[in-house]
UniProtKB/TrEMBL annotation:
This is HTH gntR-type domain-containing protein. Pfam families: FCD (PF07729), GntR (PF00392). SUPFAM superfamilies: GntR ligand-binding domain-like (SSF48008), Winged helix' DNA-binding domain (SSF46785). Coiled coil: none annotated. InterPro entries: GntR_C, TF_FadR/GntR_C, Tscrpt_reg_HTH_GntR, WH-like_DNA-bd_sf, WH_DNA-bd_sf. It comes from Roseomonas mucosa. GO terms for molecular function: DNA binding; DNA-binding transcription factor activity.
Length: 220
């Protein structure tokens, strides 16, 4: 019988470490350029070094951290190229998801409208972004394509991080979002796609404007 290596990390502990570290990076509690030592991170999260090391290696595959000689692990910077690539993909994928989602809301299903209401009622930027991205995720889920929804979810996480780097950039999207919500609920596929494109373009413009300002030091 083959025995597992003594330093083989437990899969559930690795997943726990990944989820917690990813959340801290996405929400900018761990800032771009911040160093992550395996020992202190393990102690802070109450986990062993093996799952922390495995989690950091997987987060490196997602581009959220980098292994730097003599420094250990470092939270990845956000670059102009990152912004363009993330939002270019969102502009390609999300309008199609919205087009497919139109007319697919089941009778009596209020989840999409409730997500929109939470966005309007949110008291803080973090709450507003969480509700806004929940709304976009629900539209993606309604597309009926799980792989498409999964990819959009990853892109939403990345763009959430970009938005939180400069809090002043997330303005109101009420008219666009209302048009999108109504188009999806009423089954107007072409209008839903157009409204989604406008919404994503608005977010992209705000992020680029804020993160390329002279005082923005987190973008290369």
């Amino acid at each position: 019988m083959t025995e597992s290596a003594p330093d083989m990390p437990n899969a559930s502990l690795t997943r726990q470490a990944m989820d917690r570290l990813r959340g801290e990076i996405i929400d900018c509690r761990l800032r771009p350029g911040e160093t992550l030592a395996e020992g202190s991170t393990a102690q802070r999260l109450g986990l062993g070094k093996a799952p922390i090391r495995a989690a950091l290696a997987r987060l490196a595959e997602e581009g959220l951290v980098e292994a730097v000689p003599r420094r250990g692990w470092v939270v990845s910077l956000v670059t102009i190229r990152d912004i363009h690539e993330v939002f270019d993909l969102r502009l390609l994928l999300e309008p199609e998801a919205a087009r497919r989602a139109a007319g697919r809301v089941a009778s009596g299903d209020t989840a999409l409208a409730e997500a929109r209401q939470r966005s309007m009622a949110a008291a803080s930027l973090v709450e507003r972004l969480e509700a806004r991205h929940d709304f976009h995720r629900r539209v993606a889920d309604l597309s009926g394509n799980e792989r498409l929804s999964h990819q959009i979810g990853r892109l939403l996480d990345e763009s959430r991080r970009m938005m939180l780097l400069r809090p002043g950039q997330a303005g109101s999207d009420t008219p666009v979002a209302e048009n999108l919500l109504l188009a999806v609920l009423e089954g107007r596929a072409a209008d839903a796609a157009r409204a989604m494109h406008e919404a994503v373009w608005t977010f992209r413009t705000g992020v680029l404007s804020a993160l390329t300002a002279p005082e923005a030091g987190t973008v290369l």
